[in-house]
Design goal:
The protein is of the alpha+beta class. The chain has one domain. 21% of the residues lie in helices and 40% in strands. It has a 3-stranded antiparallel sheet, with helices on one face. The longest helix has 12 residues.
């Protein structure tokens, strides 16, 4: 079971992801809004699950 919650205010953005089945939590905080926090979190999840994924390009 996975739960995600995100938020944004001005240039700040944040996301928290809890994966109970795989026993990990991810918290990302940013102070320069780029709109890529979901892509970055998906890449981190793939790494933690030993799956392949690509990091977002700039």
């Amino acid at each position: 079971m996975e739960h995600r919650h995100d938020g944004r205010g001005g240039n700040y953005e944040a996301i928290i992801i809890s994966d109970l089945e795989n026993n990990f939590d991810i918290i990302l905080l940013g102070n320069n809004y780029q709109g890529r926090i979901f892509e970055i979190s998906d890449a981190i999840i793939a790494i933690l699950k030993n799956q392949t994924d690509t990091l977002p390009q700039q």
